[in-house]
Specification:
It is a single chain. Helices cover 37% and strands 10% of the residues. It is globular, with a radius of gyration of 26 Å. Helix 14 packs across helix 15 and helix 15 packs across helix 16 (502-523). The protein folds into 3 domains: 22-156, 2-Layer Sandwich (Chitobiase, domain 2), CATH 3.30.379; 162-497, TIM Barrel (Alpha-Beta Barrel), CATH 3.20.20; 521-569 and 606-714, Alpha-glucuronidase, C-terminal domain (Alpha-d-glucuronidase, C-terminal Domain). With 715 residues, the chain is α/β, with parallel strands linked by helices. The structure holds beta-D-glucopyranuronic acid (BDP). Beta-D-glucopyranuronic acid is lined by residues 176-177, 218-219, 296, 335, 374-375, 402, 712.
Length: 715
């Protein structure tokens, strides 16, 4: 074993430290003796992607194997690794079967051993340049994770076209719901200064296949569409281009008024259309591969087409028309609910958008959050999935942990993402999973997209919590292939980020896999939701009422409905009937508390405190059981982590240890605050197995958390 090197986490999973095992190193070195980059003209679509792949391989192999693998133009010896683009090299294309080339698709790659002119070679080829870069990262990952050279051969292609990161970053570098420092986009110094971090960011993204980034907050500022800022955006796009990453911007719907001097932003007004047309043209002049716009309209105070009596489709189509011929897309968010609150908030996105199915232009994608409320620790899948078969729907996930402990609490989110992607909507028979709707295969859409709200900031380690890097990584891997398992991804990430030692992989993977459920348990178990502190959303706040929140559907009491008669939100036909928005098999299953899974019970049902759970316990006792279980899980993580001392470098070990300590304390606060609060209504003693609360309810209610990062009110 080599001694552990101190690590500040900056390198993420792209650590190319020398492999300690001599024979393993030798086996790779023997398999790759030279990198062959045939002289080829550069691609206009992905300029410099091949040289970038070459450099990444040279660097990576130098680190991992401790050798300088030579770069040549033609294969000269056994072990040549041949990079190339099939569409531009008939010679290489002849070595790859039609079927394999089709399987690699537009952006995938093929790694395939061949023997040519008596020389043993490995092809690393693709139909487009960017595929070669993806393949290079896959090959390096193979080596980083110590997989055998015998299994080098692989073909992989992304299932979803647009694999997007959404940054909620503002022009003043404040990140809405950002917990890892400031925005990495230094707008003030752009375009003159190109922070090396931009390139490292692009590398990390390309290594997991992310190919689109929205640079700015959905609560948008029109200034980013002014010439001065567009030049800054163009500079970033230039850094990202070799990595296959296209830039998108959020478009503030009222921009024609704010920066265009018009009196209206009515999407049907000819002057407004003209303004956007000219704006799009200006953008494409600066950024020929500009991806398009992401829009939050008529939601939480944002302007939109409804301000002029127009529909969301009118607004989206108007913008879409201005970028259609340039290959641009409009991502129009379905996260919409009314200020007047006419109905259960969980129903409003569906009510608003479902009737518009079929009315959107071909380059509009409607972007839907995983659940109908708002990125809760657990939500049932959004009923829009499967309900708009004529519209491509993007799945929006939150990587930043707004409701799961910021960057203090450990919550590996891949199981949450997987749960949504695998959820069966039953909208077109069984097997109509969210994943198949989003990847376009169920309804045969030509375009598909997935979006993750980024957890990246200026912290040296990018994500604040060292283990939160796994969420960025896992999101990218699932965006590439949503059939991958969250556990396999965890292990792959651990191998690259920490160690290939099974004594690290097993315990750490187990801990990651349990971590999201632990947060659910100690904060919002059994389908409880939206009971966090108001505003910054950090910590418990089941007592938050309309007075505190300003509007009922931002309060907690609106969602948990705790009263003497019981707890939970009745969304059956007797209640808000949100269940009517789901396909029959789902609706039927979730309409009856007896067939509703425990973890969604209080999402759909209001039940008496003595309701008999599947476990045999009363609902009240079960609630206590879950809150206590959450705390116990964190204690187990502390033990597990403690056992890794000496196997993980000291800086990261110490950092995570400290965070777990805080998480344990805050898990107890969640438990005590929530149980004491609900106890006022249940009027029952705390179940036996639950530890006695440390403080009184009054104490927890009086706790004021200030200066919490990411709180928009703090800007
Ligand atoms: C909520 C956040 C808010 C965002 C909003 C959104 O609290 O800051 O602006 O989502 O997605 O979860 O637009």
């Amino acid at each position: 074993m080599l001694p552990l090197r101190a690590d500040d986490g900056y390198r993420l999973w792209l650590r190319y430290d020398r492999i300690a095992d001599d024979s393993l190193r030798a086996s790779y070195a023997q398999a790759i003796t030279e990198i062959v980059v045939p002289a080829q003209p550069d691609s206009p679509w992905f300029p410099r992607s091949i040289p970038t792949a070459r450099d990444e391989l040279v660097e990576g192999l130098r680190g991992l194997l401790g050798v300088d693998v030579p770069v040549v133009e033609k294969p000269t010896r056994d072990g040549a690794l041949v990079l190339g683009v099939l569409t531009r090299s008939p010679e290489l294309a002849a070595l790859v079967s039609e079927r394999d080339s089709r399987a690699a698709g537009e952006h995938g790659y093929i790694i395939q051993p061949v023997v040519r002119d008596g020389v043993r070679q490995t092809l690393l080829v693709a139909n487009r340049d960017i595929g070669v870069l993806y393949g290079a990262f896959a090959l390096l990952r193979h080596i980083q994770t110590h997989r055998s050279v015998a299994t080098l051969a692989q073909i992989s292609a992304p299932r979803i076209h647009l694999r997007m990161l959404n940054h909620w970053d503002n022009l003043d570098r404040f990140i809405e719901r950002g917990y890892a420092g400031q925005s990495i986009w230094d707008w003030f110094n752009l375009p003159d200064v190109l922070d090396p971090r931009y390139r490292d960011y692009a590398r990390a993204n390309a290594s997991i296949g992310i190919n689109a980034v929205v640079l700015t907050n959905v609560n948008a500022n029109a200034s980013v569409l002014t010439r001065k800022y567009l030049e800054k955006v163009a500079a970033l796009a230039g850094v990202f281009r070799p990595y296959g990453i296209r830039v998108f911007l959020t478009a503030r719907f009222s921009a024609p008024i704010e920066i265009g001097g018009l009196k209206t932003a009515d999407p049907l007004d000819p002057a407004v259309r003209e303004w956007w047309q000219a704006k799009s043209q200006e953008i494409y002049q600066l950024i020929p591969d500009f991806g398009g716009f992401l829009v939050k309209a008529n939601s939480e105070g944002q302007p939109g087409p409804q301000d002029y009596g127009r529909t969301h489709a009118d607004g989206a189509n108007m913008l879409a028309d201005t970028i259609l011929t340039r290959g641009g897309h409009v991502l129009w968010r379905a996260f919409v609910y009314s200020h007047e609150m006419p109905d259960d908030r969980a129903k409003q996105g569906y009510s608003e958008f479902q009737p518009l199915d079929g009315e959107f232009r071909s380059n509009v994608i409607v972007q839907v959050k995983n659940g109908a409320i708002d990125f809760m620790p657990r939500e049932p899948f959004h009923p829009l999935f499967g309900a708009m078969p004529r519209t491509p729907l993007a799945l929006e996930l939150q990587i930043t942990q707004e409701y799961l402990g910021g960057s203090v609490h450990l919550a590996y989110l891949a199981p949450l993402f997987e749960e949504v992607l695998d959820a069966d909507t039953h909208t077109a028979g069984s097997g109509s999973t969210v994943g198949r709707i989003v990847d376009g295969s169920l309804d045969l859409h030509g375009i598909s997209a997935i979006a993750g709200v980024a957890n990246i900031g200026s912290d040296r380690n990018w994500t604040g919590h060292p283990l939160a890097q796994a969420n960025w990584y896992a999101y990218g891997r699932l965006a590439w292939d949503h059939t991958l398992s969250s556990e396999a991804i965890a292990k792959e990430w651990i191998r690259q980020t920490f160690s290939n030692d099974p004594d690290v992989i097993q315990p750490l993977a187990a801990m990651l896999m349990e971590s999201r459920e632990a947060v659910v348990d100690y904060s919002m178990p059994l389908g409880l939701h939206h009971i966090m502190a108001v505003g910054h959303h950090y910590g418990p706040g089941p007592w938050v009422d309309v007075k505190d929140a300003g509007r009922a559907d931002w309060s907690s009491v609106y969602y948990h409905r705790a009263a003497v008669d019981g707890i939970g939100f009745d969304r059956t036909a007797r209640g808000s009937d949100a269940l009517s928005q789901y396909a029959k098999p789902v609706r039927e299953r979730w309409s009856d508390p007896a067939t509703t899974p425990d973890e969604l019970l209080l999402w759909f049902h209001h039940l008496p405190w003595d309701y008999r759970m599947k476990s045999g316990r009363t609902l009240w006792d079960e609630l206590g059981f879950y809150y206590q279980r959450g705390v116990d899980s964190v204690r187990r993580f502390q033990k597990t982590w403690g056992g890794l001392e000496g196997k993980i470098d000291a800086p990261r070990f110490t950092h995570v240890k400290a965070l777990l300590g805080r998480q344990e304390r805050e898990a107890r606060e969640w438990r005590d605050a929530c149980l004491l609060y609900f106890q006022q209504f249940s009027k029952r003693p705390l179940p036996e197995h639950v530890e006695k609360p440390e403080y009184s309810l009054e104490h927890y209610m009086s706790v004021k958390r200030r200066n919490i990062p990411g709180d928009p009110a703090r800007r």
